[in-house]
Amino acid sequence: MQASKDESVYGLIGRNIEYSFSRNYFNNRFQKEQLSTHRYVNFDIDEITQCEKIFDTPYLKGCNVTVPYKQQIIPYLDELDEGAKQIGAVNCIHLKNEQKIGYNTDVYGFQKSLEKLLLKNDKKALILGTGGASLAVGYCLNKMGIEYQKVSRTAKTNLLTYDELSEQLIEETDLIINCTPLGTSPNISLKPPIPYRAISKKHYLYDLVYNPEISAFLNEGKTRGSRFKNGYKMLILQAERSWEIWNNSR
Q1: Which of 5, 32, 53, 70 does the annotation list as catalytic?
Q2: Domains and CATH numbers, the chain
Q3: Is 154 exposed, middle or buried (0-12, 13-18, 19+ CB in 10 A)?
Q4: Cα radius of gyration (the chain)
Q5: How many CB atoms lie within 10 A of CB 93?
Q6: Over the stretch 195-234, which tens digit does the pLDDT of each residue have?
Q7: CA-CA distances (angstroms) from residue 44 to 21, 48, 129?
Q8: Which of 42, 90, 125, 129 could link 175 by a cystine bridge, Cβ 3.0 to 4.6 Å?
Q9: Crossing angle of helices 232-246/21-32, nearest 10°?
Q10: Residue 33 pLDDT grade (very low, low, confident, very high; cuts 50, 70, 90)
């Protein structure tokens, strides 16, 4: 792919994102493909209102969005694609013809990365966390016909709290997905407070955390013989889908 004549800027909108996977991933890609006019930067902001200045960045073509802004970013966009609209969270923005269009590529990344270790009898899931990533995960599980319950730190309608997670409930669950940042480096000893004693070989533990490679949450599954997977492949897949969207001629 040949470099364009005009500079193209892409970036990640989030808070405390110096660790960013996306910046290194895309800049390495641009270098390998000799896209010398392309660059990917971090837009680290303290509050969502600062995104308006980001959108004034010269030559800005696209952005990814990460915590805590996947839901908060929506009012600042001109349009949502149907998937992002149904999910209620955006992690990819395409800027074209003075329009800011929101997408959700987390769904694509999650489903494709989840499927490899998924069994036919995996029909019940627990989603740990209630942020923007959990919305994409829930949307995906609905499409796949997997029943799920969400778990929150605080009591809310139609949500379980961690105090309500009994060993029996864990035993009756097949798939447990951590959508919280607990366990992310450097706080690698942290993990969601669930009754891990009930985890067995029948379970599939999936962690959106990818650094470290095996989080404290996943290690609980590994030591008990369960299937387990981190979020690294999901990150790559959602990034590739973002790149496709940004290069769409729409």
Answers
A1: 70
A2: 8-104 (3.40.50.10860), 108-233 (3.40.50.720)
A3: exposed
A4: 19
A5: 29
A6: 999 999 999 999 999 999 999 999 999 999 999 999 999 9
A7: 14, 10, 23
A8: 125
A9: 60
A10: very high
